[in-house]
């Protein structure tokens, strides 16, 4: 499984972000390209512990059984529910959100596994740095594919 901790896959993701067009239309979902970038940045903040999100009751009871969805080789399902704090509905500035996400990805990759939070994922619970690395790549791949890049 690809991981954001591997430079090859980080560079792949960064190139795909660079190729994202502000006017790209999603193949599924309701977010536009700028909102998707802000969503991915917000998710990065959870992975680093910069954003502390309470676990949902559903996550507490079901998350550990569903956890492999986050880091296995299968694509994430379209229109999967999201963490409410990462759902973007207001208008966002595409250029700003793009640069912010690029910088967060570079920082996450550069500082490595030590940069991962020890806090549980709001739904899946406790994740190892390796699981975070695979999950971050998979999440970014999912949303970049949503916009055709």
What does it look like?
The chain is mostly helical. The protein has one domain (7-146). 52% of the residues lie in helices and 0% in strands. The longest helix has 18 residues, at 94-111. It is globular. The model has no long low-confidence stretch (mean pLDDT 94). This is DUF1569 domain-containing protein. InterPro entries: DinB/YfiT-like (IPR034660), DUF1569 (IPR011463). Pfam families: DUF1569.
How many individual β-strands? 0
Summarize the main sheet. Answer: none
- Note the overall shape: globular
Number of helices: 6
The run of helices and strands is: HHHHHH
Topology:
Elements: H1 7-18, H2 33-48, H3 57-66, H4 68-71, H5 94-111, H6 129-146
Helix pairs in contact: 1-5, 1-6, 2-5, 2-6
What key phrases describe this protein's structure?
single chain; mainly alpha; 6 helices; 52% helix; DUF1569 domain-containing protein; DUF1569; DinB/YfiT-like
Task: Please sum up the structure shown.
This protein is an all-alpha fold and 149 residues long. The chain is built from 6 helices and no strands.
